[in-house]
Amino acid sequence: MQESHIHKIAQNLGINRGQVSATINLLAEGATVPFIARYRKEATGTLDEVQIAAIRDQSEALTALDKRREAILASLEERELLTDELQKAIMAAENMATLEDIYLPYRPKRRTRATIAKEKGLQPLAERILEQDNFDLEAEASKYLNEEKGVNNVEEALQGARDIIAEIVNEDAEVRADMRRLFIKGGVVQAKVIKGKEEEGEKFKDYFEWNEPIEQMPSHRLLALRRGEKELILSLSIGPDEGEALYLLEDYYVANEGPAGEQVRQAVRDSYKRLLSPSMETEIRIWSKDKADETAIQVFVQNLRELLMAAPFGQKRIMAIDPGFRTGCKVVCLDAQGKLLDFTAIYPHPPQRQNVRSEMTLMDLIYKYKIEAISIGNGTAGRETEAFVRSLKLPKETQVVMVNESGASIYSASEVAREEFPDLDLTVRGAVSIGRRLADPLAELVKLDPKSIGVGQYQHDVDQSLLKKSLDDTVMSCVNAVGVEVNTASRELLTYVSGLGPGLAQNIIDYRNENGPFQSRAELKKVPRLGPKAFEQSAGFLRIRDGKNPLDASAVHPESYDIVKKMAKDLGVSLADLMKNDDLRRQIRLKEYVTDTVGLPTLRDILDELAKPGRDPRQQFEAFSFDERVNAIEDLSVGMWLPGIVTNVADFGAFVDVGVHQDGLVHISQIANRFIKHPSEILKVQQKVKVRIVEVDVKRKRISLSMKAEGQGPPPRRERR
Q1: Does residue 551 contact residue 565 with C-beta atoms inside 8 Å?
Q2: Residue 29 covered by a domain
Q3: Rounded to two decimals, what is the model's pTM?
Q4: Which of 194, 341, 641, 717 could form a disulfide with 333 if both were Cys (CB 3.0 to 4.6 A apart)?
Q5: φ and ψ at residue 212, rounded to 5 degrees
Q6: What is the DSSP letter of 199?
Q7: How many domains would you assign to the chain?
Q8: H or E segment at 693?
């Protein structure tokens, strides 16, 4: 990479050039973001995953800019249009917009009004008019009359000259840069309902007459307006005050009030309305959409991380129930590793209520499989099923937990589920997912497309390739932060391990099935196509519990095993003793083990890992119960305080499940008694909260909530102009 790019990235991120250069080199060698952040701290100066990903993304953007620059230079050279001055300007362009502005006058184009005028020989007339000196305009224009070329009168000659001037104004890079700034700083979004769509567009009612500066518009509102436009409910326009824009252009080009100056003024106005304004509006639409996408994706990423890193119940024997009324509740029993042991259906609710039989069936299964927890999906009939289960005389050690089943139905119909349970009904597969989601949310949720999990904000409206890249980064980050037990992990979980991917993940599964459990990390080298690079990238994130080497169950990378062995040898103890004894580890002087490639950051990580080998960074599981008084939205009343779980965080507030099959909204103004810029300052997905019912609209299924005590501010209102 060019030194100038390294310098620019370093400046943008506030880090030194050596850190950028080292990170780019590691990425070029095939290292992943989690691997670099965890095992190459000395090289990068302890950059974290966010900084490393930012270096990667900015490097890719600058590379794309260079490729476009090269293509433009090649095109200009081929057409013999490249001058030293033009080349210098192109090489100095620091972003794509500036580069395209410089290239615009030279870009091969379809026939325009200006090119037609040039074909009629009117270019010299346009240039003379642009000089705006004192001359006889009509007499000058008369020189260009030519019936064969279609210039029949003075007005036609002047019109052609104005067309040429209009295009000159439109293609002026300096003008475009100023106009772009004006559109950003002074641009206003205007939304109006399309005539006759008032009733059809009820959900966009707030935006039927809307004006707001584009620079101040929050991400969620812009995406909502664009969706309304896409659904042909709203018409949108974006632009600054026309008078201000025309004043800017005339200041550039109109030199006097004479006849020639008036022609230039007309050309400038035509240029703005016909060329510049539509072009700039398109650019600002793209710019504002990119900005809104970035914000929305960041919200999605933050929510997804909290969901993936939710506390696991752990390897326990679980009964899972997928609730239902008419079709009954599907029940499955899983062993501590999530393997399906048994399944059936019960009917504890109308119209086929069989309470006694349902009770007997559940109790028999609970005692037969020594069930430690009952996981109940929070969808239709979830609260009613929870109430039924809690009414039973359960063993004291058996916990009842409501689980967010969002996406379970998508999993049950997926190819992954069909491969695992080809002979089972969709609802049984869904129940299995609900149970496994309690045991280990991360391991189960990686089987789903993150977009189906339900924690996004306008996720279907944002740039899908950028969204996928960001979500994949997040899933990979979470999987590698937790670590993966190689002998029990699914193919989907292994796929996200640094350096693996779908092919190697399947090869590991096949090897495991053919040869039995892995006894050591070193044995991974026997997996077909898992070469030295893949081993280097993945080994530290793969765990082998109860293996031959206790370090194989830790996050200590095999490349550092010799260092740990030397530490134990220097103390005259075994490796196992060193890992068990805090006093022994306190005797280690880390500076004695520093080498050219291993520094104090890595050595500190090793020592921390020896204290808690293979520790799970996720929080301890805590059971949660909804208020027993409420099961449906009709049970809610204004002023009632209820426990809830945050299910989604957006720019404008947070959605909270209070156990009535319909999430309520805590508007950002109702989250705290102080001003907050974003709900994520206080709330995160899966957080347990206490909320007060502010308003209930049963018909529209809307619940307004507050986290403030009564009298501490007005209830949330609809956004207004």
Answers
A1: no
A2: yes
A3: 0.86
A4: 341
A5: -160, 140
A6: T
A7: 5
A8: strand 688-697
